[in-house]
Amino acid sequence: MDKSTFDFILTWTPYLLEGFIWNLIIAVMAVALGSCIGFYLAYLRITKIGRTKRIADFISKFFRNIPTLAFMFYAAFVIPKEITLWDGFVVQFPYWIKASIGLSASSIGFTSQSMMVAFLAWKKKDYKSTLLFFPTWSNSFIITFVASSTASLVGVSEIVSRANFLIAATGTHVMIPVYIYSGLFFVISSLFIMELIKRFKNTPFIEGIPEKLAMKYPQFQT
Amino acid sequence: MISNRPRFFNCLTRIFLILSLVLGGVYSAFAADELPSKTLAKIRKDGVIRIGVKTDVPPFNSINSSGEIVGLESDIAQKVAEKLDVKLLKVGITTENRFQKLEVGDVDMLIATIGDTPARRQIATGIEPGYSETSVSVLFRPEAPLLTKWADLRGKTLCALQGSYFNRPISERFLISLQTYKTVRDAHLALESGKCDGFLYTTAAIVADLKKPAFQGFKSPLEPALKTPWAIFVQRSEKNTELDHIVGDLIVEMHRSGYFLELNKKWDVDYSTAWLEKAKSFWAQKNNNQYLCKRIESGYWTPECREAALVNSEEVHGLQAIGLWVKEQTGLDLNFIYDPYSRGQYLQGLGYTMLLIFLSILLSIGLGIVSAIKHDHSSEFTKKVISFVMSYGRLNPPLLLMYLLYFGVGSWLLSSYGVQLPALLVAVLILGYYTSGLVMSALLESAELIRHTKSEFKINYHNILDTLDSSSWPIKQALINLTKQSMIASAIAIPELLSATNLVMAEKGNVFLLMTVLLIIFFFITGFWTDIVTWAETKFHNFRRVNHG
């Protein structure tokens, strides 16, 4: 890389970084939303029987089977730009919210499924397998985080769309460095997040969770 | 442990059921004899035909210095009068009053730059086929970045005119915000002062603008959208009558003889020339010395020769009739099933998606196994390198890597070596690379577990199946994820299912339905591949059991 390319990238780093913060916001929103819904679905699948359980099973499978990009496009095209709830109170749906909603889909499916698997292991008092929930869940977080780049396809000004904008505005000679540089944002922060989760996962607090649950809800383990 | 019996035959049954519901069923035929025409009787009685024409749209029709109405459409009107062997009387009309004048009988016919749309068919009869084409384009300032696809306009703002019929479909289909102005002049000013990114207007007007000195350097690089034929209109009650047939036959003759192309040359119109050339060869197609496009018993042209949007269920048979009937009854436009063109695109999309998934699965498993074996037999340093390379692929957004390889490396290869990098190859490589990292770590973790009991264990091509016990679940998850990721390939213009959906949507505007169908189809696609992978997993387990006791 020659000096001018380096300078160019340095000049535009704040611009790209700002886009990357949108990726983080979208991913965190999506995982928070998806985990809550997924958790509730798993709860229904565990505690309910009959029709409720079957519906919850189906919804989980539905979200597990459909690409997040399809959901994202669906949200972008089908959710209106704003909804007027009552006089003067308007809920806006900017593209980044739509992208988060679309992206939450895979998180819903993932959380619901790994909660089920963890619950079944916990029921058999196989606490080692129960704890596999955390790496699986953090894996799904990384997948969602990396997938947040597709939000550019529905018009969110995140890092990939900014990279494309930079390339369109300044010419193709910066294309390869800009794409590689933008990718590094993801690689480095993913490695960082994975390291954090790894440390957190091995704390006595986390490792003690299955036993604590077993004391609190013994009725489920019979 | 493997209790999950393969269910993909089940899945096939489901797909088959849906298809047979749609494909099978009613076969309806409605025949109609040629009806007498009231208008034609009157024209013949009077010995004169009164045709409504525009007077302010050069070169199609305008008033010359001696006060005569002349233009491309006047020439067509003349031909119609000659064909009917009557005198021609041209009547000046405007955009607002033309259909009223037709309805009350002030004019017998309209040849007045009218786009033939389903909405207009509600109030009058457009004679098929059309004699030219109208469409929508975008005019850009000279300094605007060069956009080549409508999809690139997503999220941008365009200037437009209030009340244009194409504003809504365009803004909905391409997610564009519009600033609508009252007049063309206002819109031009707004464009010049940078209030909007471009000006959305009819192609004919934009092409005419570009020829003016005031618009030097302006450009209109997008492929015109919402293409609609310009048609001659008669009263609604004249549908499928003798008049409709005589004029329709005349237009077809003029397409076949190249008369419209001559007219374009004469009046210096060039934007519709490509459409006319296509129409000429289309209507001239023959099979065993017979024209392929001809009138069938019902009096209409062969359905394949008509604009799908203008056909309704009583005029066709079979699949198309069912599709259109559903549309007329429920408003659900299943054009990707009944319209042969959209259906072709949709099926191609499905085929590409399946091919892409299949090849990517093969590559991910292959590359995952090779790298896991290599990793297990390497020095600490090489191990680190392999791990880094593989996790780079896993943590880098596949979309970015696709852009990098397709546009970055692709254009370098093209300029340096003249090698064209196929998009499908790029997508398979990137998706395979992305997923093989997951496959590799699943295999390595499994090997690590085996080492708890057999400390000498190292993965090789012979014992790879031994790792299956604990690696099959994460590998399966990775492959399911791959199936879902395949959709990203639409970003590099692979005509897979999402691209096909977007294309069909842009033409017909049935957004909600098509997006819902896309979700449902992908639900089955993922289910299908999950079943295939589960089936393969069972086979491998059985193979292992047989061979290792």
Structure description:
Chain A is mainly alpha-helical and 222 residues long. Chain A has a single domain (3-221), classed as MetI-like (MetI-like fold, Orthogonal Bundle). Helix content of chain A is 77%, strand content 4%. Chain A contains ten helices and two strands, in the order αααββααααααα. Chain A has helices at residues 3-47, 51-65, 68-78, 95-123, 127-130, 133-147, 159-170, 175-201, 204-207, 209-216; strands spanning 82-86, 89-92. Chain A has a two-stranded antiparallel sheet with strand order 1-2. The longest helix of chain A has 45 residues, at 3-47. Chain A is globular and about 70 Å long. Chain A starts with a helix and ends in a 6-residue tail after the last helix. Chain B is of the alpha/beta class and 549 residues long. Chain B folds into three domains: 38-131 and 231-312, D-Maltodextrin-Binding Protein, domain 2, CATH 3.40.190; 134-226, D-Maltodextrin-Binding Protein, domain 2 (3-Layer(aba) Sandwich), CATH 3.40.190; 342-548, MetI-like fold. In chain B, strands 10-9-11-8-12 form a five-stranded mixed sheet, sandwiched between helices. Chain B has a three-stranded parallel sheet with strand order 5-1-6. Chain B has a three-stranded antiparallel sheet with strand order 2-3-4, covered by helices on one side. In chain B, helix 14 runs antiparallel to helix 15 and helix 16 packs across helix 17. The interface between A and B is large, with 42 and 42 residues.
Furnish the topology, listing elements before pairings.
The complex is a heterodimer of chains A (about 220) and B (about 550).
Chain A: H1 3-47, H2 51-65, H3 68-78, E1 82-86, E2 89-92, H4 95-123, H5 127-130, H6 133-147, H7 159-170, H8 175-201, H9 204-207, H10 209-216
Antiparallel strand pairs in A: 1-2
Helix pairs in contact in A: 1-2, 1-4, 1-6, 1-7, 1-8, 2-4, 3-4, 4-6, 6-8, 7-8
Chain B: H1 8-23, H2 38-46, E1 48-53, E2 56-57, E3 61-63, E4 69-70, H3 72-84, E5 87-92, H4 98-103, E6 109-110, H5 118-121, E7 124-126, E8 132-139, E9 157-161, H6 167-174, E10 177-181, H7 184-192, E11 198-202, H8 203-210, E12 225-230, E13 233-235, H9 242-257, H10 259-266, H11 273-284, E14 286-287, E15 290-291, H12 318-330, H13 335-338, H14 340-376, H15 380-395, H16 398-417, H17 423-453, H18 468-485, H19 497-508, H20 511-548
Parallel strand pairs in B: 1-5, 1-6, 9-10, 9-11
Antiparallel strand pairs in B: 2-3, 3-4, 7-13, 8-11, 8-12, 14-15
Helix pairs in contact in B: 1-20, 9-11, 14-15, 14-17, 14-19, 15-17, 16-17, 17-18, 18-20, 19-20
